[in-house]
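Hi V.,

You were right to ask for the full record rather than a summary. Here it is.
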Amino acid sequence: MEARAAVSVEDARRLGRPWLGAILDALDSRLRVRQGVIEYTHRPDCLFRIQVVESRDDILLAEGTHIRPGDRLVRLHMWNEQFPAFPAGGPTLAWARRVNRAFEISLRELAHFLEVRPDLDDITGICGTMTFGRADRSARLARFVRRFGFEKIDLHGSQSFRQRMHWFGENILISMIVLTYNATALRADTLWRDRVLVVLSRQTLRRRYLTERRDVAGVPVAVNYMRKAAPGGEVRWQAR
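Predicted structure:
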């Protein structure tokens, strides 16, 4: 999914660079406001924020959904501060289970959020652009999200030179942050990260993740959302 090159103030303080963390945190917040990226749940295990965008491509999904240019989509943005920290010794089974569980919860929360927002009834699909490495690594991630109902869409034939230069600029920023905070993790291919678009239809989201909510006693409950203004002009939606 769209992974923003953000580092929290807490991470920067731990690494002895609180001033840089504060700058990056403020920049990330400002970019979210400018791009209309919002929080759709207050759950601490949600992995994503969202942005409503228009499709630039003609996409036919295997399950039959046809997304045309101009159709509205929800784009997922990684909520970096809430993504489970990568273990120092490498990924573990417990970490993988935690990520899988959080991914499913995030999509379930999104399904319920969209259902109570009439202004989003025309959303035809959920998309994310993964930017986590070379083509082979991106392919592995595409296989991972496929288990949640996403389909991989080839972007290479439809992206303009300007778009690719924009991606290259993003990769430079990511590389600078990696060099600042964890220089040993910087790889030679960081500047040439591949992009993989994955799409989940609204129909599949409803079928797989729109389950009835119940309280601790097992009684069905209705959930409404209220809009909350956050510092810096950000928009957050919270269940009430």
